[in-house]
Amino acid sequence: MNLTEDDVYRATTQYRLWSYSPSSLASIRDETNANAAKRVVEAIRRHRSSTATNASSNGAEPAAADHDSTEPAVDCLTPAESALLLTHYLHILLTWSSTRHSPRAFPFPSAVGATAVQYVRRFYLSNSPMTYHPKAIIATALFLATKTECAFNSVADFSRKLRDDMGLKKMTEQEVLAPEFVLTQGLRFTFDVRHPFRGLRGGLIELSAMAQGDSDALLLPAFANGGETTGADVQNEMLALPLPQDDEYDGPSAVKSASDLDKRVGAAFTRADALLQEAALLTDAYFLYTPSQIWLGAMLVADEPLTLYYFSTKFPAAESDEVIKAKKAKILAVLQACATMLREWEWKPTPERKEELKRIDKKLYKCLNPDKKDLVGLNAAVKRGAAEAGASGDGEEDNTRAKKKRKLEDEGDPFGGPLESKNGEGKKES
Amino acid sequence: MAREIRTGEIVALKKIRMDNEKEGFPITAIREIKILKKLHHENVIKLKEIVTSPGPETDEQGNQDGNKFKGGIYMVFEYMDHDLTGLADRPGLRFTVPQIKCYMKQLLTGLHYCHVNQVLHRDIKGSNLLIDNEGNLKLADFGLARSFSTDHTGNLTNRVITLWYRPPELLLGATKYGPAVDMWSVGCIFAELLNGKPILPGKNEPEQLNKIFELCGSPDEINWPGCSKMPWYNNFKPSRPMKRRIREVFRHFDRHALDLLDSMLTLNPEKRISAQDALVAEYFWNDPLPCDPKSLPKYESSHEFQTKKKRQQQRQNEETAKRQKLQHPQPHTRLPPIQSHPPHWHGPSHPVNNTQPPVSAGPSHHQYGRPRGPPGGPNRYPPSANQSGGYNQTRGTQVGTYSSGPYPAQGRGGPPYAGSGGMPAPGQRGAASGYGVGPPNYSQSGQFGGSAGGRAPNPLGGNRNQQYGWQQ
């Protein structure tokens, strides 16, 4: 049985179901948004007409239609607005998931939050925030990720922590569980997410060994071929590398010894790791690139000369071979594209962005699909059983929904929870 | 069992119950799905897709929408006709040596593939090894399986693997372990196939360890460095040193078989043979060679609703047999393989366990309707393991609910058995649209490759103890 890493990756659902080209990704999102908008408009019209029907006893069809035409048109979210809103909530999800983002967060390994973020991103490829508000989905995604990433917390403990430490004062167990099935279905029951973290660690170990002049680290085609290059040669070549030409480089300013080299490798790792913990998760990197492309891309951002040298050692030294040259260029182009995506990522809570988010959140309040607002109620209806969920159930649901809506309107800001935590986070950062 | 309308193919369904789960989607089901979606091998059961009961709504990409879901999620597996225990228990049926080699080779090939993919099965036993009428053997029931990695620092639960197949390190309380746990189970199955009956039928954990020590010798710092530091070593250490007696007890086995068995039933997990090394053991490369799966005899398929009448008949027979048994305990009926000497061994010290109700004629590899002894009694199989005995079918198919099997009364507040049984879920016409992920063309043939899979419902085990399922 001879399995290469590539074979293993190509067998994963991440590769088979969740890898896209930039254009296919964009068209899927546009289509999802358009379909969701259509449904929202229909659902809102239906709800308006049923309200009208209830109000006037002669609720004939034409009357309802007339009523419709006088109603204001539903202003739906654009794909760009959906994306921005989603990123905002994903950022909140990240701050919950690991103590590296916030001291009061869950003490999960980084894979848990990273997996949860990818679950949400995958879910919103085929669902729109207009149908399922992200604030209802993110906690559930994190809970699901605790199950799939071997960090299980009982739903009672999980929701208590959200209430006590994340500012979600009204979060209930039911609210965590209710969207779970919808989410698993949106994920098409693929729970495995491949992260670049372990690959980066492996690269660090390899680079450290090379920096020490360890000949055992040279299990590389470039060295295996000639067999002439020694550990010391590699170390000298690494010492001769130019330093990165960007302001954010925080390694040693001159690399003269093995220990300087080690510090340089360490600094590159730290910076690359920070990119993997945020930029790689909140961009489309996982949809567009493989885990190894992502960590090498992050390394390119962190220390380009070092990474290019490391990259070159993976190929036979014969520079003249056209096939190898072409291969190298092709892979490097992909890595550079990934690096650009990670480098350009930034998410700072500027006042403009806050205003924009507030506007989108308000807009979403008016174009949220009324059929899907009460996920807890819908989930309970499912549990009550298929038979009872028929005609009588619908009325009941409408009642609870109406009550809930009135209650929310009384409280002023219906999206209190998430916005609070957004504000809180802003304070911490300032 | 159900039929895929598009292709006419018969498949097996395993229902995932969602409605009574306090913690939402059962974590055991999540693990099984996650792991099976990762594995594509001819000796590992194929999870074809997940389907839900029909719901009218779809999401924005035309996929089904969960909110109108009416309570049914099913894992759809390829259909398999038999399981190894069921086949071995057929009256009058004897495996030939090439047949045993063929099954063992497939078992090891599938397990090696799992281990290469960093998956521990953690419930290897005869009833989880499914066999189709093409002679293909597949590992099934990954409800207790989990991924491991060599750098994993967390603790794993030692409450896995059905007692009779559980290795000494788990019984001594290890919480860090690896693929060697599965290899111990393979050794037990191997010996069982050659011997004609289970070799280590302990009733509870202390007795299980005692049986292991009587057969494999007592552990000490020489044959198993570090064993005295195991959490429960002091509770269970044997009062007197015991000699390793494998070669004596199984002296009637073929020499190469004995060598392989000896290396599988090694107390020290570090020294226990790996699946990869076992595949190159002399045993598989000496005459008689393993046969081609396709050359194996085709046994009559035997599923619940294909053979209802037969089952009724069988029940009556068993009732009669049970009454007879009460008066005249009968010896074990499973026969050793052809070309092998008759078994001399009656267990190191508990011959009483070799009695069992005679298995009546007729297909019954799921033990439907098999009478059950009292908990911990002289039953053929450990109660609550993957037997789904005389229980009604719906119970047996629920994933994630508490097992309804009887637990033997014993200490430390937990059932010693890993998981429990299931059978194909009640048929559901293949109307549900699924999200199947077609496995890619992913050939794993290679040196040890078996032949391509057939089709058929597998009697995949269902019940998992949610209580334990969430442990790592």
Automatic annotation (TrEMBL), chain A:
GO terms for molecular function: cyclin-dependent protein serine/threonine kinase regulator activity. Residues 195-342 form the Cyclin C-terminal domain. This is B-like cyclin. Interacts with the CDC2 protein kinase to form a serine/threonine kinase holoenzyme complex also known as maturation promoting factor (MPF). The cyclin subunit imparts substrate specificity to the complex. Keywords: Cell cycle, Cell division, Cyclin. It comes from Carpinus fangiana. It comes from the Eukaryota. SUPFAM superfamilies: Cyclin-like. Signal peptide: none annotated. Residues 106-189 form the Cyclin N-terminal domain. InterPro entries: Cyclin-like_sf (IPR036915), Cyclin/Ssn8 (IPR043198), Cyclin_C_2 (IPR031658), Cyclin_N (IPR006671). Residues 48-72, 386-430 are annotated as: Disordered. The keyword Ribosomal protein does not apply. One of its GO terms (biological process) is regulation of transcription by RNA polymerase II. Pfam families: Cyclin_C_2, Cyclin_N. CDD domains: CYCLIN_CCNH_rpt1, CYCLIN_CCNH_rpt2.
From TrEMBL, chain B:
This is Protein kinase domain-containing protein. Residues 1-284 form the Protein kinase domain. It comes from the Eukaryota. Residues 384-404, 463-472 have a biased composition (Polar residues). GO terms for biological process: positive regulation of transcription elongation by RNA polymerase II. Residues 411-424 have a biased composition (Gly residues). Gene3D superfamilies: Phosphorylase Kinase, domain 1 (3.30.200.20), Transferase(Phosphotransferase) domain 1 (1.10.510.10). GO terms for molecular function: ATP binding; RNA polymerase II CTD heptapeptide repeat kinase activity. Pfam families: Pkinase. Belongs to the protein kinase superfamily. CMGC Ser/Thr protein kinase family. CDC2/CDKX subfamily.
